[in-house]
Amino acid sequence: MTEASWSDPRILPAEQCVLSAVLQRRAAAQPDAPFAHFEDGSAWTFAQALAQTRRTAAALQRLGVKAGDHVNVCLPNDADAVRVWFAINWLGAVFVPVNLAYRGHMLEHVVADARASVIVMQADLVQRLAEIARAALRDVVVSGTDAQAVEGLRQHDLAALVEAEAEDAAPPAAPVRPWDTQMVIYTSGTTGPSKGVLMSYQHVVTASSSTWPYLDASDRFLVNLPLFHVSGVGGVVMPLLLGGSFAMVRGFSTADFWQVVRRTRSTSVVLLGVMASFLLKQPPAPGDREHTLRTVTMVPLSEDAQAFSQRFGCDVHRVFNMTEVSSPLRAGPNPAPVGTCGRPRPGVEVRLVDASDCEVPLGSTGELVVRCDSPWAMNSGYLNNPAATASAWRNGWFHTGDAFRVDEQGNYFFVDRMKDAIRRRGENISSFEVETEVCAHPAVQEAAAVAVPSEFGEDEVLVVLALKPGASFDAAEFLGFLARRMPQFMVPRYVRVLKALPKTPTLKVQKHLLRSAGLTPDTVDAQTLGLGPSRRAQG
To answer: At 539, is the pLDDT very low, low, confident or very high (cuts 50, 70, 90)?
Structure first.
């Protein structure tokens, strides 16, 4: 497509969308403005970010990386991760971040699926490559020291490679366009092999700007989610688009979260999974409002936004998002009613449908399907997986796999992941709603509800929970608490207590591990306490 034929006003100009063009524009307009702040104390202006990108791109180009190539990156949140990501896109190549927890068959799957010849990896993780079939991999570029050599791979030190470069990388043979693939981010893969989501430049920018329309150049975004997660990526992209700044740390910690906010002078953050719950469950302190945070984006949607706002003195916004879509639902600041994730934003259409893609009646639960009015504003499919792409995009709508309901005012409420729904005695049970009630118990820190087989057919409800530090637990008292708060058919039959629930690096509970463990010897059966439903009720 020629420049002259690129006339669709719904597609962003390259200088507002393509990373290399946006970075050059920012460096020219505000070269000395602060942009990036890292946990080791280092920092970049926009001009320094551009210089770092150019030299790193030249080093990768010398290894043969070119436009269209996929490059795997397995690095923690630090300056190397950002410079390598930007350099890959500078060359017109595709950034393919890898979950740092992956090893064995999971790492092998991503490496094989990406078909990359180059991987950039933290030194202490390199030996994992010796344990897998390495497909097309030829070079491993190492961040850090003391990496063990892996037979069959050429090994390079990232710092030395970059230091040796005296000239900038040659530009791509063809200009990078908004519809070109910028990155591939892999889904969590809790029910099967991870799927690589193809994300164009326009998709990444749309997802970022749709999630945080209220930010401006004065904001500093706290990036405590990894770059293999779309919210981690967006926390870097949005400041770049706005001319603002970000502070990047290795991860989230409940104990020192507010100290990190104060130290970095961050004004905005995403609280994903159980993060908001953990913060709210901390004992109130006199300094709860003594910080710089102005806005919080809360995902998912179980916590009371107004309660969080009142306690910590910052505005709470909510979105529904996933890697494949661009925050189609949003609410805030401090939305009511409790639990809503808002209404469709401008530029998207949503429907709630049944298994045949027929729209469900108002108030009924259905799968959320989405489409945008702009080309390339959502995913471009799944890498090397046409069957999954066709299934997700059937009938012209992207199928999220998430169950929702909508009220008469047009507020949407998340009900459950379709695969997590529980069927018990003829009733459909939302694991999300069970977890919300369980977490209301004063002793509970976190919880997950999963289905286990019932001897009477269908499912029984198993709740696995972790307690607050120092809390005691009485199963009979706990089940009585739930019986007063929820319908009898939702009250769990089985309860298990762990020190902590198994989670991904983005703090998503790994329910598949809880399901596979099933009824362990330490699981309490409510029926043995005389509290469970009778056999007649179960039959």
So the answer is: very low
Task: Fill in the DSSP letter of residue 100.
Answer: T
Angle, in degrees to the nearest 10, between helices 19-29 and 79-90: 110
Residue 302: per-residue pLDDT: 59
Please tell me whether residue 115 adopts helix, strand or coil conformation: coil
Does the pLDDT of residue 1 top 70, yes or no?
no
What's the distance, CA 523 to chain centroid?
A: 31
Helices (H) and strands (E) in the chain, counts: 15, 26
**Tokens describing residue 437:** 């009630």
Q: What is the mean pLDDT of the chain?
A: 91
pLDDT digits (tens, 9 = 90+) for 148-178: 999 999 999 999 999 988 778 888 989 999 9
Number of residues that this document lists for the chain: 539
Helix (H, G, I), strand (E, B) or coil at 413: strand
Q: Which of 447, 443, 529, 440 is nearest to 484 (CA)?
A: 440
Write the pLDDT tens digit of every residue in 263-297: 999 999 999 877 888 898 899 999 999 999 999 99
The DSSP secondary-structure symbol of 491 reads: S
Q: Give me 340's structure tokens.
A: 């809503």
- Rounded to whole angstroms, the Cα distance separating 118 from 57 reads 13
Q: 70: which 2 tokens?
A: 């996929």
For residue 463, what is the enclosing H or E element? strand 459-467
Backbone φ and ψ of 144, nearest 5°: 105, -175
For residue 121, give Cα distances in angstroms to 84, 141, 198: 10, 6, 22
DSSP β-ladder status, 139-143 and 118-122 = parallel
**HEC profile of 435-459:** HHHHCCCCCEEEEEEEEEECCCCCE
Unique residue bearing structure tokens 């998002």 = 321
Burial 92-109 (b: 16+ CB within 10 A, else e): bbbbbbbbbebeeebbbb
Q: How confident is residue 485, by pLDDT bands cut at 50, 70 and 90?
A: confident
The alpha carbon of residue 246 and the mean position of all alpha carbons in its chain are separated, in whole angstroms, by: 17
CA angle (467 as vertex; 466, 473 as ends), nearest 5: 115
CA distance linking residue 304 with residue 199, whole number of Å: 32
